[in-house]
Amino acid sequence: MKLGFNFYRHMLTPENFRFARQCGATHAVIHLVDYFKKKDNNTIINDQPVDNGDGWGVTDREEDFLWTPEYMLQLKKELNEYGLEWYAIENFNPAHWYDILLDGPKKKEQIEFLKQIICNMGKAGIPCMGYNFSIAGVTGRVKQSFARGGAESVGMRETNNNPLPEGLVWNMQVDSVNHNVKSGQIKHDELWNRLHWFLSELLPVAEEAGVILAAHPDDPPVPFLRQTPRLVYQPQLYDKLINTVQSTSNQLEFCLGSLAEMTDGDIYDVTEKYSQQQKIGYIHFRNIKGKAPNYREVFIDEGDIDMIKILRILKKNNYQGVLVPDHTPQMSCDAPWHAGMAYAMGYMKAAIELI
Ligand SMILES: [Mn+2]
C-alpha cells in the first residue's frame, strides 16, 4: 500500500509538495480543475467545498494547457524532484464533458477530447484517472463544527432537491451548456445508458494507454439530487458499474466515506469484495458518522469506520494501490487544512506500519 496526498488546483506549489513528502507521502493525486473560480474571476480559496445552491465556481476551457502531455510531463518532473510520483488525476473538467453527462449534441466531440486526455496521460506515465459520472455533482452539504473538539468539517442534514439551475453541470457553472438539453427529469436507466456509452468509448483507449478509469461513488449517496438521478448511491451498484463494460481498466475510486454513508451494505464486506476482485484504483481513506442523508465528516479515528480493520482487509487481499485522505476536518491553528491533513497522514502511516 502506498501513501498518497491529494492536491487541489490552487495547492500545486513547491511548498505543498515538500509538505506532502514531509507527511510521508510518496504519491500524488492531482485535481487539475479549479473548482473555486468565481464569475468576477476571483478565486476564493476553499479547502472544504460547499455551496449555497449556486455551485462551487465557474469553469471554462481557458486552462486546457493543463491537459497536454507537455504540461503533464513538466508537473510530473517537478513532483519527482520533491520525491513524489504522480499516481492519478482526479476529475474531468465539466467544460470538457457536460454533453456526455447530459447526452447533448457535443458529446461525440467531447469524448474525442477525453480520449486525447487519456492518451496524454499514457504518454506522461500517469496510471489512473478518477472520475465522478454525475449530473448534479457534490452539493447540499453544510460546513459546521461537526468533528471532535469543535473542528469544522462538512456534513449533510437533508437532500437538496431544488431543481438544477440552468448552466450548472457537475455543480459548476458552464456557460457553454446548451440550455435546451434537459439535465433532469430522466430515469436511472437513462443515466446508466449514458455511462455505458462513455465507458464503451473510453475504456479501449484507456487499456491501450495503460490508464485505469476509477469511478467515485455518489457524494452525497442519495438516489436523486436536484431532481436528477444518481448512479452509485448504494454499494452493490458498483457491481453494475463494473459489469457495464468488462475491462481491466474499469475500476473504482473507492471512497470509504461515501460508501459508509450508504444505507445498504457493510463497509468491511464491500472493501473485501472489491479489493479481492482487484478493482480498486485508489482509495479515499476518510471517516464519517451517520448515514445519508444525515451524516458528518469527522477525524480519521473518531468515525463509524474501523480504519485499522479496513487496512487489514486490504493487506490480506494484497492491495497495492494508493490511499489518500480525501477530506479532513480543519484544525484550530494558523494552517487549519494542513494540520488536518498532517494529522490524517500521520495516523495512516502509523496504521500501515502497524498492520
Ligand atoms: Mn471521496
Explained architecture:
The protein is an alpha/beta fold. It has a single domain, classed as TIM Barrel (Alpha-Beta Barrel). The protein has ten helices and 17 strands. The protein has helices at residues 14-22, 69-81, 94-102, 107-124, 188-209, 237-244, 256-261, 267-276, 307-316, 336-354, and strands spanning 2-7, 27-30, 58-59, 85-90, 128-131, 142-147, 151-156, 168-169, 172-174, 212-215, 224-225, 228-229, 250-255, 280-284, 287-291, 294-298, 322-324. An eight-stranded parallel β-barrel has the order 1-2-4-5-10-13-14-17, surrounded by four helices. A four-stranded antiparallel β-sheet has the order 6-7-16-15. The protein has a three-stranded mixed β-sheet with strand order 3-9-8. Helix 4 runs parallel beside helix 5 and helix 8 (267-276) packs parallel to helix 9 (307-316). The longest helix has 22 residues, at 188-209. The radius of gyration is 19 Å and the shape is globular. The relative contact order is 0.14. The model has no long low-confidence stretch (mean pLDDT 94). The structure holds manganese (II) ion.
**CATH level-4 homologous superfamily:** Divalent-metal-dependent TIM barrel enzymes
Tell me what portion of residues adopts beta-strand conformation.
Answer: 15-25%
CATH architecture: Alpha-Beta Barrel
Principal-axes shape call: globular
The gist of it:
Helix content is 35%, strand content 20%. With 355 residues, it is α/β, with parallel strands linked by helices. The chain is globular, with a radius of gyration of 19 Å.
